[in-house]
Specification:
CATH topology of the largest domain: Dihydrodipicolinate Reductase, domain 2
Bound molecules: alpha-L-sorbopyranose
Strand order of the largest sheet: 16-15-14-13-7-12-11-8-17
Largest sheet: 9 strands, mixed
Shape: globular
Distance between the termini: 40 Å
Helix content: 25-40%
CATH architecture of the largest domain: 2-Layer Sandwich
Strand content: 25-35%
Length: 387
């Protein structure tokens, strides 16, 4: 294995920026067994891709992803493009013998996700690894939450509430973007941010979502077409474009243990900027985490003496907490971007150890099956639908 992992990143939007920070920060924060090298960034527009290469520190830039994944001086392909391109690029990269990191959701359909999971399983027999980018698992407080649940801190799980509420579409005149086009994104709030709520639930509880009943709603049906804008991007053009995805997803899940979970995904929750929250309630206590307060974990320990119970706030910044060994002294806080460095750390260490990094494409497929079941349930009048 070469002393370096030479990386090609396909795409350079918001996730391209976040992944670039991860590739650059991780080797400085952690003693990685192999050093990742930011070799080439790929985009359709040569000028914009050259600018992204300069801004984020990529050695080269290119416009033809098919040529790049065939290069023998590339070891890893990092896919940060919209969901309609994930399966084609990932399957081609795995076939070319490249390790793959693919953004979430894994694909735009179960069929695509199944093909990707099959390709990853085959590639693993050749020592090629694949991972899907559910980075919130790698916030230290979330990993601690998973560990506390696994060690029995809250007892037997009774119920879960997981929601992801944003408000960047609450303005009806916010521009059209690829995330509102079913052909590009596969679904709206459900797949874009509901996928995180589903993955978090399955990750921290160790339970699968087995059955769902849900409703999907489109609130604003047309939006202005604009030139490319900052942030989440805008769809170029004049006039108005048709929104073909859900704006709001509400659904109930029956977990594999029989416990019930409630889910919400919306980009219309006025005032909620990036509120991914999960609360797990057990017979001996509860745990709550909110991305908008990402360093803290709320813990209700019902084994405390009467009068001393209720949620306490654990500041998850101690050196012994997950991932903190690479960063600052207690209380100096981490941010949104650190999860992307933790993702790089875990991927590189798995590749070096010859093991499958988590979440695997199979885990990404399990989320895709839940998304699909919610869409089928909503189309059938919110009936209970098997995942
Ligand atoms: C937009 O809703 C978005 O960028 C999602 O696509 C990301 O997955 C989420 O982490 C932040 O919000």
């Amino acid at each position: 294995m070469s002393a370096q992992l030479r990386v090609a990143m396909i795409g350079h939007g918001f996730m391209g920026a976040a992944h670039s920070v991860g590739w650059r920060q991780a080797p400085a924060a952690f003693d990685l067994p192999i050093h990742p090298r930011m070799s080439v960034i790929v985009g359709r527009d040569a000028e914009k891709t050259a600018s992204a290469a300069d801004r984020w520190g990529w050695a080269e830039h290119a416009t033809d992803w098919r040529a790049v994944i065939e290069r023998d001086d590339i070891d890893v392909v990092d896919i940060v493009t919209p969901g309609d391109t994930h399966s084609e690029i990932a399957i081609a990269a795995l076939a070319a013998g490249k390790h793959v990191l693919c953004e979430k959701p894994l694909a735009n359909s179960v069929a695509e996700a199944e093909a990707m999971a099959d390709a990853a399983r085959d590639a693993a027999t050749r020592g090629i690894r694949a991972m899907v980018g559910f980075t919130y698992r790698r916030v230290p407080a979330v990993t601690l939450m998973r560990d506390m649940i696994a060690s029995g801190s809250i007892g037997s799980i009774r119920q879960v509430h997981a929601s992801y509420r944003q408000d960047w579409l609450a303005d009806a005149d916010a521009p059209m973007t690829w995330r509102l086009d079913k052909d590009r994104a596969g679904s709206g709030a459900l797949g874009d941010i509901g996928a995180h709520a589903i993955d978090l639930t399955q990750f921290v509880t160790g339970l699968g979502v087995a059955e769902v009943s849900g409703v999907l709603e489109t609130i604003v049906h047309e939006r202005p077409l604009l030139g490319e804008s900052s942030g989440l991007g805008g769809t170029a053009g004049t006039g108005r474009g048709r929104v073909t995805v859900d704006d709001l997803a509400l659904f109930t899940g029956r977990l594999s243990s029989g416990a019930l979970a409630s889910f919400e995904a919306t980009r219309f929750a006025t005032g909620r900027k990036n509120a991914l929250e999960i609360e797990v309630s057990g017979d001996a206590g509860a745990l709550h985490w909110n991305l908008e307060d990402l360093n803290a974990l709320q813990f209700d320990d019902e084994s405390a003496e009467p009068g001393r119970r209720g949620f306490t706030r654990i500041l998850v910044t101690e050196p012994e907490h997950p991932y903190l060994s690479g960063w600052w002294p207690a209380g100096h806080m981490l941010g949104y971007e650190h999860g992307f460095s933790h993702q790089v750390k875990d991927l590189v260490e798995a590749i070096s150890a010859g093991s499958d990094p988590h979440p695997t494409f199979a885990e990404g497929l399990s989320v895709q099956r839940v998304l699909d079941a919610v869409e089928r349930s909503s189309a059938a009048g919110s009936t209970w639908t098997t995942v």
